[in-house]
Amino acid sequence: MALRLLLHLALLGLGTARPSVPGRSLRAPAVAWPSFFGLNSPLEGHEATQIPNNGSAPLLVAVQVFVTNVFNVDILRYTVSSVLLLRLSWLDTRLAWNASVHPRRVLTLPWDSLWTPGLTIQEALWVDWQDPSPRAQVDQDGHVELYLALTTETNCDFELLHFPRDQSNCTLSFYALSNTVTELEFQAHVVNEIVSVKREYVVRDLKTQVPPQQLVPCFQVSLHLQNTALKAVMALLVPGEALLLADMCGGLLPLQAAERTAYKVTLLLGYLVFHSSLVQALPSSSSCNPLLIHYFTVLLLLLFVSTMETVLLAGLLAWDHLRAKRSPSPAPRGEQQAQDAGPSPEGATRGGAGSWRSWAEVADHTFFLFYVAGVVCSQFIFLGLWMWATCKSDPAPSEAVPHGGQPRL
């Protein structure tokens, strides 16, 4: 008797892969089957944990995926967290009974006492199954229903070219690795149960598909995420545009004013600090990097050119003024009598210094006009690229190599 009991426990432990929770043991207990099942012998109990035989056709498992929450969309780590509820249903005629003899219509059985599909999420970094010991409902005809609640964090290839106006599709691929496509087939459907809209990324659409020509049964859930862009616009675009406008206003200050040079240098140093923190805030990728990275780099170059123009012209004026003081030019003949009355160094240097000053002011005014035109044109060019530019990401490493890609039948 003890030997039969040990054999019964060992056979029950050979079922397919089950949801697991770290730190908890899910050993299959000995199950006391209802007498009308006729599964109380060890071999018959082990048979119940094997996939039902559907003849020449694979067993059809209907899956309803209820997406209840999507949170922690991290574009720097390329991850997204989601909360799902799976409703799996299939037919197992071995569990049917005669309702006229046994009037019970529905039974609730432990998940480890019968066959259930073991699911693995391909893109998952971790999966937390909310109920470590779910229970399945079986009706008199052998229809089985199993509910699985889980929270998972998965990888997602975000399309960030138009960040913060980006839209991406994140895929969750569920595989039943313990079965083949000749034994099992999924029929998936997704339901949007998200009630919270206070998110930076919102779910605009949900889709499911069953990929063809797979070695193992699989179904995929696709989440279409859209960035609301408010945070990025307030934190990135508004400060950048404000600095650029302040730099253009600084060009209206007189070139001779020492405050203009200090003003320009202060703006450039402040933007360098802003740019260093900006590089850490924006995501990077091997292909199709956000256009904002190029935009803020162009903005840095514009501020640098504007500051250098002010520093160079102010330096030339100061150098010319010092040279005029050290080597004064001779006075014109009409001013000989004035020189006899008394020397006037300011009048002697006024002619040369005035010509240099007028030349510098004309050059500064011309540069200011070209600078404003260049800034306006760059804004329109960036806006057009941001709205309509496209970029095709590089293929995945498994698909780029000659013999790469997932195995197919």
3D architecture notes:
The chain has about 400 residues and is of the alpha+beta class. Helices cover about 35% and strands about 25% of the residues. It has 8 helices and 11 strands. The protein has helices at about 1-10, 40-50, 230-250, 260-280, 290-325, 335-340, 345-390, 395-400, and strands at about 60-75, 80-90, 105-110, 120, 125-130, 135-140, 145-155, 165-175, 185-190, 200-210, 220-225. Strands 1, 2, 3, 5, 6, 7 and 9 form a 7-stranded mixed beta sheet that branches. Strands 4-8-11-10 form a 4-stranded antiparallel beta sheet, with no helix packed on it. β10 and β11 form a beta hairpin. α1 packs parallel to α2 (about 40-50), α3 runs antiparallel to α4 (about 260-280) and α4 packs antiparallel against α5 (about 290-325). The chain is rod-shaped.
Number of helices: 8
The assembly state of the depicted protein chains is single chain
How many strands? 11
Global outline: rod-shaped
**Biggest sheet, open or closed, and with what strands and sense?**
7 strands, mixed
Q: Report how far the terminal alpha carbons are from each other.
A: 47 Å
Radius of gyration: 37 Å
Structural class: alpha+beta
Strand content: 15-25%
Q: In sequence order, what are the helices and strands, one letter per element?
A: HHEEEEEEEEEEEHHHHHH
The parts where pLDDT drops under 50 for at least 5 residues are 1-32, 333-349
Mean pLDDT: 81
Helical percentage: 25-40%
